[in-house]
Amino acid sequence: MSPLAHQPIGVFDSGVGGLTVLHELLVSLPGEDYLYLGDTARFPYGDRTKAELEAFSIEIAEHLLAAGAKLLVIACNSASAAGLDAVERHLSQRGRDIDVIGVLRPAAQVAVVSSHTGRVGLLATPATVASGAYERAVEAADPHVHLESVACPDLAPIIQGGFPFDEAVVATVRGYCVPLRAAQVDTVILGSTHYPLCAPILQRMLGRGVTLVSAGMGVARSVERALASRELLNPQPDEGAYRFLCTADVESFRTLGTRFLQMPLGEIVHVDLAARAAA
């Protein structure tokens, strides 16, 4: 066993959406410690440029590694699409052999296995759709699967804002589902970690025969395999600890984050990444 096994897993997202991924990690790997950073001051990431997302991802990765993270999870589709390769290059250039796991590849693999017709839909932010990253991930998993992608510029901000789901929001979500129904998909990737919170309304609009795929379960499997390959699995028999960092208001993060995590959040510390970068 590596002496780093007791170090935490670092997880980050543009806001609280990545807590749906953290929830799955807490359930699947309960003995691990976790440090989660929500970049709420710069939310949303969905309309950011690739250069911005690369810079944000590298900055946050450095912050979590400085705090002792033994593995990084980019629990944000936009950041995974634009920043995963940049983070890996950045760490490699500095001789740091750290696994970095995004949400796209695990979700794409689960979706391909789930589909019986080979027609898969994607709901995601404009940045994620424009990157083409899901198309590449699905093709790599199975070149015979067709992906129907729909950009949803409003959905993550609506959810991050704390809802409520009024008729205007229902109409917005229904509009995003129209091209997926027309394409007769049997599986839909929820290409933002925020979207699982509106899974019931999506399921109603798409139909009960459509399988909704979120990244959490696939990410947890990838994390477990990566840790095991490096003998980094935490051997402690009890539940691990989890802590939170955010770049904007702590209490707002706590209020909305509790709904996403479905568990108490406990300690939340405010961090100023811009000040840290300037220093």
Brief digest:
With 279 residues, the protein is α/β, with parallel strands linked by helices. It has helices spanning 19-28, 50-66, 77-93, 104-114, 126-131, 133-141, 155-160, 167-182, 199-206, 216-229, 250-261, 273-278, and strands at 9-13, 34-38, 71-74, 100-101, 119-124, 146-151, 187-191, 211-213, 242-246, 268-270.
What would your notes on this structure say?
- The protein has helices at 19-28, 50-66, 77-93, 104-114, 126-131, 133-141, 155-160, 167-182, 199-206, 216-229, 250-261, 273-278; strands at 9-13, 34-38, 71-74, 100-101, 119-124, 146-151, 187-191, 211-213, 242-246, 268-270.
- The protein is α/β, with parallel strands linked by helices.
- Helix 11 (250-261) links the parallel strand 9 and strand 10.
- The protein has two domains: 3-102 and 217-278, 3-Layer(aba) Sandwich (Rossmann fold), CATH 3.40.50; 104-215, 3-Layer(aba) Sandwich (Rossmann fold).
- It contains twelve helices and ten strands.
- The termini are far apart.
- The radius of gyration is 18 Å and the shape is globular.
- The longest helix is centred in the N-terminal third of the chain and has 17 residues, at 50-66.
- The protein has a six-stranded parallel β-sheet with strand order 4-3-1-2-9-10, sandwiched between helices. A four-stranded parallel β-sheet has the order 6-5-7-8, sandwiched between helices.
